[in-house]
Amino acid sequence: NLVVGAIKEGQTNTNSVVWFGGDGYKEPCAVGDNTCQMFRQTNLGQLLYSSVPYLGYINANFKAKNIYITGTIGSGNAWGSGGSANVSFESATNLVLNQANIDAQGTDKIFSYLGQGGIEKLFGEKGLGNILSNIVYEESLNDNAIPKDLVSMIPKDFGSKTLSSLLSPTEVNNLLGVSAFKNAIMEILNSKTVGDVFGENGLLNALDPIKRKEIDQMLLEQIQAHSSGFEKFIVKTLGIENVENFINNWYGKQSLSSFANNFVPGGLNQALDKIGSSSDAKDLQSFLDKTTFGDILNQMINQAPLINKLISWLGPQDLSVLVNIALNSITNPSEELTSTISSIGEKALNDLLGEGVVNKIMSNQVLGQMINKIVADKGLGGVYHQGLGSILPKPLQDELKQLGMGSLLKPKGLHNLWQKGNFNFVAKDYLFTNNSSFNNATGGGLNFVAGKSIIFNGKNTINFTQYQGRLSFVSKDFSHISLDTLNATNSLTLNAPRNDISVQKGQICVNVLNCMSEKKAHSSSATAPTDETLEVNANNFAFLGTIKANGLVDFSQVLQNTTIGTLNLEPNATFKANNLIVNNAFNNNSNHRADISGNLNVVKGAALSTNENGLNVGGNFKSEGPLIFNLNNPTHQTIINVTGASTIMSYNNQALIHFNTQKQGAYTLMDAKRMVYGYDNQTILGGSLSDYLKLYTFIDFNGKRMQLKGDSLSYDNQPVNIKDGGLVVSFKDNQGQMVYSSILYDKVQVSVSDKPMDIHAPSLEYYIKYIQGSTGLNAIKSAGNNSIMWLNELFVAKGGNPLFAPYYLQDNPTKHIVTLMKDITSALGMLSKPNLKNNSTDALQLNTYTQQMSRLAKLSNFASFDSTDFSERLSSLKNQKFADAIPNAMDVILKYSQRDKLKNNLWATGVGGVSFVENGTGTLYGVNVGYDRFIKGVIVGGYAAYGYSGFYERITNSKSDNVDVGLYARAFIKKSELTFSVNETLGANKTQISSNDTLLSMINQSYKYSTWTTNAKVNYGYDFMFKNKSIILKPQIGLRYYYIGMSGLEGVMNNALYNQFKANADPSKKSVLTIDLALENRHYFNTNSYFYAIGGIGRDLLVRSMGDKLVRFIGNNTLSYRKGELYNTFASITTGGEVRLFKSFYANAGVGARFGLDYKMINITGNIGMRLAF
Question: Which ranges carry the Autotransporter domain (predicted)?
């Protein structure tokens, strides 16, 4: 087992630190050496003496059966310039991180140090001047201010070069003419007294005797050369040492500056001003030409004792003044000093590389551009932060891209070559993490890998700073990783395939200048995209913190849902996601359109704001918070485009939509396949007009909302114009502009104009075509001549909400709507078509006609049968005794042999039938009773029938009671037959309109009406007789007159709220004259049994409906007589027969059928009954 940071597993709070990277000194300071300790606290001291800036990398791989980690494990160095490590811990079983702190520190600052940043770090540190002064002072006390091996530090050929090879008089003057040095010299002369130089403890007495004599000799030579005769006399008389003592005694307390003003011509200030001036340029040039750098070095070495004494005499305080001036000149050089240094550097390079080489380099466009860029950025820091693309020409950039090194061209791209900083935790079984923190500033990776699952417990924090890092959670089994905090200042790549990731808080920035109050060194990333991208690959990803993005945010690889707390998209941001849930806020200020391929859900209490660039939603959209549209520019594209359905809800009277713009234009704020709106936990799918108009009050127009009172709207206390049933509202805003708004079933539109606009909402026909398609529209129209009008009436009646119609069209297929229109057409037909209204009487009349033909066929028997029948009749009389007053025996025989020739017939039949008229079906049940006989060779009969019928067509159900009373007769003229019939019917009808459909059920009602008919027929036929007249064929022709009268009707609504749909019809009447052609076949089997069949065809000759009568239904006025003027051609067949049961009782049956050939009308009836002859 491997235990890191503790003695045993489970132990915590050990303050253990395991570090990979430089962070120490080669040798310790001497005991009590405070100056050494102080210097090692400075950057310059660390550079010279410690391993802090070391740039080495470390690779470490730890393997064990079981691994337990606590305490701190880190990599990097204190300067952030190198030393990052690639560290892995691999466990053959489980790996536990318990209160561990994993820290991979940044290593990118090396590039900034190679330039002005390094100069400032080394020489601009506060307090460095004082520390260096102390070091120099202490070294001077040890006679080591000038290193004894100074000559060996200088290249050999450098000592032979004259000063003029690198320096001109002007450049020397620039170096010496730093005003701060002049001030410092004056400050030192003011602080030092004459006694400090000539006194007993002064500078001169501190020198060794030999050096003292050298200085005295130099003074004598100067006095002899520049002083007056008196001064020369005094010095010569008293001696230089006595003169110095005299000066000390007389002037010892004076400052050196006051003393010098007495002897320096023009005063001390004038003399100091000459330092760095060009007054002695000729002499200076001569000095530079004659003097080599070796001469100067030798002088410094020779004068080292004097320099040491001079430094120690000045002391740390005065030295710090000079050192700080020097440091300031390094970190903030003047223009003259910068120019001088640049010139000296160029000369040095020419001397090193050859004369003119520098000019050749700078004249090269590519190299010159690169060098100038580096110089302008004061080092390599700018190139690093802006990328090699900022200095390399395009052809060279293209070559790097082809080599797969294009990332180096982007800002901070060089870190791909420079940094590592990876920590890998691998377990074959389980990986446990408890209350631990992880920090990465290298752009490296933090990887958790488990053969089974990854378990995070407690509060765990992960921070990525400075660069885009990589975070991986890879496990064979499903893992739910819960983090307390996740921060990333420069974006992140998160890879957790098939695992769920949830983060409670934190902040992630993508290409953002300021993130978590950390200001980046360069602002280029704020204006131009970098390669920073936030990419997540997971099953579910929830980040409840804040994401600030000015680059790519890609959640499209999250398989299920991405849940965000706050997402702010800045101008250069691009955004992709699969399914997105917004928990707090989604603010889109990007110049690019956001793309959500799946569903978008803005939960209750959250908000979504966007500019005119908007977003696409490939699935469904649901919002329970405000939608804010901050529109800076006009646009023709839909701002929020939803492929699927959309639901937006308001709670607690909050605005659904905030519309903020001063730009005129027509804006489609949202569109979707279907948009559902709601408030107070209810969706407005139907309801009243006021329910719908209230939706407009949830739109905030530049800070103000409409108000609803009844079915009226107002804005800023001014009435709002409402048209097209509320689908378009308009008002004038406080800037005098006209604002038009439409809340439609599939979009929300707002138009702003300085002039009135003629805006109309889509018509119902447009909705049908748009939703159901052209095919659907045509199908609906074909279902009824007024289908569109009917639908509109029904939709309006449903409550007044204009959204109901398109919602209904979406929810119901074309087939269903066509069915409804056919139902209405059918119901209207039942109201307006006489052939439907009197179907029951037609069926009853056909049935009674069938019975008439059966009776007439029976009574029209002319057959004569053979003698065997007569002998049989006589034999039946054997042994019979007759009582009769007639003496003639033949009369007795004749009377009793013709018992079947009874003249009176009483019959009764049961009535049944079925009818098919257009799309309806009718039934008939009843009874028919009649009497007939021969009267002087003429058949005469009459009947009375009752029938109860029902007729069913789609949503109509009609019941009818009918009575039919008629007479019939047939006369024989040789072989001709002339038949007459007349009948009257009375009917009482009740019809019910009943639909179960949500929409059509509004017309449910019932109505009653009466019918009366007169039917008269005349028929002529000629008999062709066969087989002793037992078979008769009779062609025939006939005329029929039919009259029907119908009473008026008025519907009684099931729901009185819909009285506008009450059916109403005036009384009407109709006359029809029909011609019939037929062929009749009668077959008599004996005197008691027969069968007949009649087949015919008829045609209406005259159809007339009298009166201009109207039927009113669903806004439709139909002329009923026009519906009645339909000519028809009929085919008919009638058949039946009779058999003798016993004695005078007979059983008969008949079937009749009539078929309309021009329009559908089929009646089939049957009867079965009995006859009594007497």
Answer: 899-1174
